[in-house]
Amino acid sequence: MQNIIDRFISYVIIDTESDPNSKTTPSTKKQWNLANKLVEELKSIGLEEVTIDKNAYIMATLPSNVSHDVPTIGFVSHFDTTPDFTGANVNPQIIKNYDGNDIVLNKENNIILSPKYFKDLLLYKGQTLITTDGLTLLGADDKAGITEIVTAMEYLINNPDIKHGKIRVGFTPDEEIGRGAHKFDVKKFGAQWAYTMDGSQIGELEYENFNAAGAKITFKGKSVHPGYAKGKMINSMLIANDFINQLPKNETPQETRGYEGFFHVHHLNGSIEETVLELIIRDHSASKFKKRKDTIHKIAKKINKQYAKQFGEDICIAEVKDQYYNMKEKVMPVKYIVDIAEKAMRELGIKPLIKPIRGGTDGSQLSYMGLPCPNIFAGGHNFHGKYEYVPVESMQKAIEVIVKIAQLTANTDFKNKKKI
Fold it and tell me: What pTM was computed for the model?
């Protein structure tokens, strides 16, 4: 497993944080540092048709080693990390033979990764964990996925007795800011379906995700000397607060789970004269998703009506933009691609955890671009923060799943694919 550790660490120590405020692709120049490294590595292990375009999208091919026709499949991961928590100067810690007790990530700052709070840690007693040093995120999202894909391809190249069809590999920038699939050339990729290696806990297999939208609500106000403000001042910050209070109280991320949707207020910045509120809207159900978006506009309309005489124009301007949709609609007609992944896990002794994604992946957008793309575990936990960790054994299992999927695809009679 040392090769997995070494490869993973060589990726996470490279800062690839994306930037939602940038208009370029990739959104940060530093993403090129890992992108260029990956191109050279893919060539060095023996993959063919290795390309990187002007936007840092990487593609490569492992040719088929069978004589019969096999669908071309793909495996996709992203190399950027979230802008929500710093990914600079990552200093991974290796915990061998984890004993089930607290892990001191940073003694000086008293930052502790504890199974009393993060109970999933106890699933990995006796295994090797890679953690942060408590000051940065780790970047297992999704450098674990990249590690697994590259290592699986290397394994297949070094073991030609394992039969497989043509396999395409794709690595993308800017997934963490919702743009990972925006400039992905599905036609050039040329796969009939693919799998993103971007899930969390070992066994996760997902083909449903949220419908997603972002909302930006701007509130206008009037600033007047507070001593003479009676009937004149309009405080936009208080109106924004009123808007938030009209959202359903229990429909927030911390109060929901499973298929339950939510409104998530994530940024609020303002003054008396102008306040900007940003939130995201999520729901698995298309009809409930629409109702949530309608709720935003209804609250805005109510507030505008309330202040119409005093302000003279709309005081609350709501902009709602769709971000991505539930991939289930595109995957269900080819559900056998999920069945193959599930069968691969079961044959490897892994219990499939089939559940909806409470978020989205490149796969959700790619599915709507003509590349059905379920999501498979990458093994990490507590993404996007200082408590992030990944068991090396989970990455090893993900590698085995990739190899097994390749084998099963080559050995499947797709005339009877519904019976997989």
Answer: 0.88
